[in-house]
Amino acid sequence: MLVWEDEYKIGNEEMDAQHLILFALLNQLTVNIDNDRAGDCLADVITALGGYIDYHFAHEEALMRAWDYPDIDAHSAKHVQFAAEVKHLQAQAHSGDVHKVAIRVRAFVLDWLLGHILGSDREYAAFIASKAA
Ligand SMILES: [Fe+2]
């Protein structure tokens, strides 16, 4: 199971809470992968994760817009590209081997999310924190 570490926090309470939910969804996916009799649930969890990713990105982009974050376009472009790749994987859950897709989705989302949170998300959070000070 994934453990949410304090070092993953970017210092914005709402965004940290949303990142934590993404981790919880990844852990739900892990439970469903580990219990491969839960095949029916896997596609639903992948869909829920994809939906929450869209929700989270919309909130994050609204926050950056509200603070006139100068790198919003580059940041949003990363969101768009990632969301498209998740959607592409998600689509495979309905036609291919859902178990294999779930393992790929989990690895891909976890890897991207951690890199993104610790990199790009920290940058906008630091910008907002400096402007708010
Ligand atoms: Fe982001």
What's the structural blueprint in terms of helices and strands?
Blueprint: H1 13-34, H2 39-66, H3 72-92, H4 98-132
Bound molecules: fe (ii) ion (FE2).
What fraction of the residues are assigned to beta strands by DSSP?
under 5%
SSE class: mainly alpha
| CATH class type | Mainly Alpha
Ligand roster? fe (ii) ion
User: Portion of residues in helices?
Assistant: over 70%
* Average pLDDT rating: 92
Count of helix runs? 4
Q: Can you tell me the residue ranges where pLDDT is under 50 for at least 5 consecutive residues? A: none
* Number of domains as seen in the coordinates: 1
At the fourth CATH level, what is the homologous superfamily?
Answer: Hemerythrin-like
Task: Please compute the radius of gyration using only Cα atoms.
Answer: 16 Å
Describe this structure in words.
This protein has 133 residues and is mainly α. The protein is built from 4 helices and no strands. Helix 2 packs antiparallel against helix 3. The longest helix has 35 residues. Bound molecules: fe (ii) ion (FE2). Fe (ii) ion binds next to helix 3 and helix 4.
